[in-house]
Amino acid sequence: MQGAVLYGPREVRFEQQEVPKINKATDAIISLSATCICGSDLWPYRGIQPIAGPTPMGHEYCGIVEEVGREVRNIKPGQFVVGSFATSDNTCVICRDGYQSSCVQREWMSGAQAPFLRVPFADGTLVPTKDLPPKELIPSLLATSDVLGTGWFAADAANVKPGNTIVVVGDGAVGLLSVLSAKQMGAERIIAMSRHASRQKLAREFGATDIVTERGDEGVARIEEMTKGIGADSVLECVGTQESMMQAIQCTRPGGYVSYVGVPHGVTLDGEHLFFSHVHLHGGPAPVRRYLPELIKLVLNGEINPGKVFDLVLPLNEVAEGYRAMDERRAIKTLLRP
Amino acid sequence: MQGAVLYGPREVRFEQQEVPKINKATDAIISLSATCICGSDLWPYRGIQPIAGPTPMGHEYCGIVEEVGREVRNIKPGQFVVGSFATSDNTCVICRDGYQSSCVQREWMSGAQAPFLRVPFADGTLVPTKDLPPKELIPSLLATSDVLGTGWFAADAANVKPGNTIVVVGDGAVGLLSVLSAKQMGAERIIAMSRHASRQKLAREFGATDIVTERGDEGVARIEEMTKGIGADSVLECVGTQESMMQAIQCTRPGGYVSYVGVPHGVTLDGEHLFFSHVHLHGGPAPVRRYLPELIKLVLNGEINPGKVFDLVLPLNEVAEGYRAMDERRAIKTLLRP
Fold first, then answer.
1. I need a surface site. Which of A10, A61, A264, B161 has the fewest CB within 10 A?
2. Looking at residues A108-114, what average pLDDT do you find?
3. If you measure CA to CA, which chain A residue comes closest to B279?
4. Distance between CA atoms of A110 and A120, rounded to whole angstroms?
5. Which residues are CB-contacts of B161 (< 8 A; sequence separation ≥ 6)?
């Protein structure tokens, strides 16, 4: 089979790879119905996050189970499944507490930008649907695997409640699906910080009530003005830079909540500043597995359509163009068809 | 009257001051039944936190109302009252949300190490008791004003729940009363990190089930061992240094809670490290006013005895010795009798 491998900054090759096999008795092999490129893939693509050597890319996936190891009990060949970018046994004390992305047996998935994928801890990582889903729902089901699950965590970790005023910092795919998630959780006022017309439009479709185009101190001042000098109840930080993190903390009311769901790059927080901001801070790798059953259900019931974030669809062999389009911000998110 | 004024590192003078008067119609003047020295007073005392000039010290207080401004409605002369180190109108949206120490009209109290004190926003800051309390309860009532209120916030902000395993980092008066607070909230296992025999003893009296004497990486390893490699559910950071903050975060299980209640001095948090720790982080100046009614009730009912943290009682005019004793760790906390 052929899959995407990153060799260095902006060098994605679509090249011959071994078809994955069952390595451990708890593995499953799936054939991918669709895969995609993550905003987080752009960090190594841009050379900001170094790689040790040629790296098979991709960690968002859904598809049909081809084969399972002999200890796999709940996942069966022929099922349609969605999984998370972090494997989980879903039985340890951390998983039972809902933090499957910090499972004691966690492995980070990679190599999903390919036709076939090996998934460790299949029983704890994958969620099957009852029937094979209709084709038109595949993009939205794929979205639950990471980008929606992460946006959902952003809203949950920031304690979004009915009636709240919330701010989303970042108009990437995760930020946009954080808007959808906050809407779904009943937020009354959803302020999306975005300067790109196409993204503003999608933010509004997903439920944003206001758009703020200013950034940094000006953005903070604008939010303060919009919230009568108090700040927002919850702010969802969906970028991972120093500027976005500061913006998020400063937009939040004392006693309010800040979540952060993208790996911070070069971010340091001053303890005293954070102390007097009086905010709650929570984030980390999204425990997507916790949310998957609910998110899959919302998609299958037609209540949400997160697949709209895919504004570019390419055959898998054009994966390099998918990266370029996202890097140059020509595309919000690229779906790849194996 | 004579009160304590800090002139520079380790230079506390007990000197003549004007008796405070009503400045604003919302003020009250109280005569202090007792006052004390706070762990946070040691930062400027040690020269770590610079002062702009001679600074009247003290922000923990309880006493009898002498006089009130003409707009004060609920507080009356002759009442016994306790107040917080942060004034609050107790009506703004932030106060109503329970974050009175970030009230839009907040002022930081000072000058309480004196016989009389002016309290701004008396109606929103002070909590009166129904009757004059018995003398022997004065130390415990004084403790509610800051040190217990802050320890209580540490436990509340760290989401202490019945059955939890919690760790308290810091064996100062706040740390010790965090132990008491966690016990009161039903924590099952309370691990106090302390290397001082007298403080360990008090920690046990307040409800600690285990004592860990190791610090830094060794302390973290010990907690990991005691929690089957998972970490504690909640960790209460009651020091405010880089080492104590790192120790707290590293002792916490993924998805667990870290609170921090002492002003951080020279603390910086690495965003990526915090992200993968997966903890909830919350802290800031304790909203003592939120807890005062409940804490006063617990003291008056004899359910808690936080006054035990005062292991040195001096007449107010010996305030300088009170500072020295705490600086040299000869005393946990000094109560001063005006």
1. A10
2. 97
3. A282
4. 11
5. B185, B186, B187, B233
Residue A209 belongs to domain spanning: 149-283
Indicate if A101 and A203 belong to the same structural domain.
no
Show which of B283, B310, B328 is a domain's final residue: B283
From A94, A264, A277, residue closest to B255, measured CB to CB:
A94
> Do A135 and A221 reside in the same domain of the chain?
no
Distance from CA of A268 to the nearest CA of B (A): 5
pLDDT by 10-residue block (mean), chain B, 338 residues: 97 97 98 97 94 96 98 98 98 97 97 98 98 98 98 98 97 98 98 95 98 96 97 97 97 98 95 98 98 98 98 98 97 97
Amino acid at A174: V
A275 and B284 within 8 Å at the Cβ level: the answer is yes
CA angle A218, A220, A221 (to 5 degrees): 65
Q: What is the CATH number of the domain that holds A62?
A: 3.90.180.10
Same domain for B45 and B128?
yes
Do A195 and A295 lie in one domain? The reply is: no
Which residues of chain A are at the B interface, by a Cβ-Cβ cutoff of 8 Å?
A: 93-94, 97-99, 101-102, 104, 229-230, 240, 242, 245, 253-255, 260, 263-272, 274-285, 287
**What number is the ipTM of this complex?**
0.97
Q: How high is the pLDDT of residue A101?
A: 98
Which of B43, B91, B93, B159 is the best substitution to test chain A (most A C-beta atoms within 10 A)? Answer: B93
CA atoms within a 13 Å half-sphere pointing along the CA-CB vector of A86: 25
Mean pLDDT of chain A: 97
The Cα–Cα gap between B232 and A282 comes to: 17
Domain count, chain B: 2
Q: Which of B102, B229, B278 sits opposite A284 (nearest CB)?
A: B278
Residues A93 and A159 in one domain: no
Report the chain B residue with the minimal C-alpha distance to residue A279.
Answer: B282
A281 contacts B281? CB cut-off 8 A:
yes
Residues of A in contact with B97 (CB under 8 A): 253, 255
CB contact (8 A) between residue B282 and residue A279: yes
Residue-level pLDDT at B326:
97
Pair of tokens at residue B249: 């975060």
Identify whether residues B318 and B268 lie together within a single domain.
Answer: no
Contact B99 A283 (CB under 8 A): no
pLDDT recorded at residue B11 = 97
What is the predicted pLDDT for the residue at B14? 98
Residues of B in contact with A96 (CB under 8 A): none
Same domain, B16 and B123: yes
Q: Give the gap in angstroms from C-alpha B237 to the nearest C-alpha of chain A.
A: 12
Which amino acid is present at A195? R
Same domain for B173 and B273? yes
Please write the tens of the pLDDT for every residue from A214-268. 999 999 999 999 999 999 999 999 999 999 999 999 999 999 999 999 999 999 9
Burial class for B225, CB neighbours closer than 10 Å (0-12, 13-18, 19+): exposed
Of A12, A81, A86, the C-alpha closest to A47 is A12
What's chain A's Rg over C-alpha atoms? 19
